[in-house]
TrEMBL record:
Keywords: Cell membrane, Membrane, Repeat, Transmembrane, Transmembrane helix. The lineage of its organism: Eukaryota, Viridiplantae, Streptophyta, Embryophyta, Tracheophyta. It comes from Prunus dulcis (Almond). This is CASP-like protein. The chain crosses the membrane at residues 121-141, 161-187, 199-226, 253-274. It is a multi-pass membrane protein. It is found in: Cell membrane.
Length: 277
């Protein structure tokens, strides 16, 4: 309708043209801008009998909002040959260009964050399985050795050492946390631009990383002593007698340290997603 009124106008000067193009530019790129008929819009511009800075600015704004930045820059150079750009025209062009770039980059950033959220979900499942297997493997570790008769036996169980008990508790707590954190991970896949929930997740992920690292490191030190012993402290290498016990406690460390690495990756992913906002 606005274009029809402009075509019917006998006097096509700066006022009706500026009003027409400003309406196109500010109302979501409708009319010629939405249909991509910039040649027709340029034809209307050429029919204007009198042009000033306002007319040029309105036309350049339409080009920028349509993503035709090269054409907008070309028109700006043409404008410089006839009209001298003032401070307002330069500022308006910069604002329009900045808004255009910001709008065009938002879907890309959202897509990257969604991909990172999907990877976050997969990594949490891996860490959950690793800590679950470690807790079960260590918690079910026990071995008995007969001493002369079946009535007199030596035994080795994980709860004989408080360090191994702490290892089982730490892995169990982290495993339970990972189950509940999957809900937030799914939420981030749906709402890739969420910010506060990611900050909360980073906080708890860091706490769980510290707990899991402490448990795995302490257990690894005891496992080393079980294999190598310490002659100065008069600690014997019990793995020479309890082979099955040592194999189980050594294998249980693998899933726990995998969880440590995964938590580091999870924290980095969340930080990267926040930095893109």
């Amino acid at each position: 309708i606005a274009s029809s009124l402009f075509d019917a106008s006998e006097k096509r000067d700066v006022v009706p043209w500026s009003a027409l193009t400003a309406g196109y530019a500010r109302r979501g790129k409708v009319g010629y801008a939405k249909q991509g008929e910039m040649e027709s819009a340029r034809k209307l511009f050429d029919e204007v009998t009198k042009r000033d800075v306002v007319t040029w600015n309105a036309t350049i704004a339409v080009y920028v909002l349509c993503g035709s930045n090269e054409q907008a820059f070309q028109m700006f150079k043409e404008m410089s040959l006839g009209e001298k750009p003032d401070v307002e025209s330069l500022a308006a062009g910069a604002i329009e260009l900045g808004e255009s770039k910001s709008t065009s980059s938002t879907p890309k950033i959202g897509g990257v964050n969604r991909g990172a959220s999907i990877l976050d979900f997969i990594l949490r499942i891996i860490a959950f399985l690793g800590t679950l297997v470690s807790a079960i493997a260590m918690g079910t570790t026990r071995e008995r050795l007969p001493f002369f008769t079946q009535f007199l036996q030596f035994r080795a169980e994980y709860d004989d050492l408080p360090t191994f008990t702490f290892f089982v508790v730490a892995n169990s707590v982290v495993c339970g946390y990972l189950v509940f954190s999957l809900a937030l991970s799914i939420f981030h896949i749906i709402r890739s631009n969420a910010k506060r929930s990611r900050i909360i997740l980073i906080f708890f992920d860091t706490a769980m990383l510290a707990l899991l690292t402490a448990g795995a490191s302490a257990a690894a030190a005891i496992v080393y002593l079980a294999h190598k012993g310490n002659a100065k402290a008069n600690w014997f290498a019990i793995c020479q007698q309890f082979n099955s016990f040592c194999e189980r406690i050594s294998g249980s460390l693998i899933g726990s340290f995998v969880g440590v690495v995964v938590f580091i990756l999870l924290i980095l992913l969340s930080a990267a997603a926040l930095s893109r906002r």
